[in-house]
Amino acid sequence: MERNTLIGENTQNGHLPSTYDAAMEALSSLITSKRRGDRSAINSKYSKLDRMMMYIKILDLEEPVEGLKIIHVAGTKGKGSTCTFCEAILRECGFKTGLFTSPHLIDVRERFRLDGSDISEEKFLHYFWECWSAQGIENVRDDLPMPPLFQFLTVLAFKIFASEK
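Now predict its structure.
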């Protein structure tokens, strides 16, 4: 319920905060105390994948996400380096690139790179509040609450990359 209160405070009268600090406060409200391997912190009749698909649908991103060319790197070591190498090679070959990595070290914007550069604060705030308000009051329900931090950031990455083409 705490998340829902913060959503309401941040989207009153259709006004979205523009400060980076307000965005970070909102984002930190999505942090759960769940540990790896624990059951989901969200009580829902939907699986994580089902919820992700619903979040994508709320943002009307189904078609744009299908149109993205995605390389997903998994494993235990070297994912960040592998992604950075792949992104640099593709960029050098003339492709427009977007890179989403996790975790960040200092600033959450490090996770989102467009053509080799961290996303600007202005673009981050624009897309952040667009996603935040779309997931907000009118769409939050007991069985589909605001997404936890990583899921929100993943949906945000899809929004950024689809919008920036």
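The domain at 46-164 is CATH 3.40.1190.10 (UDP-N-acetylmuramoyl-L-alanine:D-glutamate ligase).
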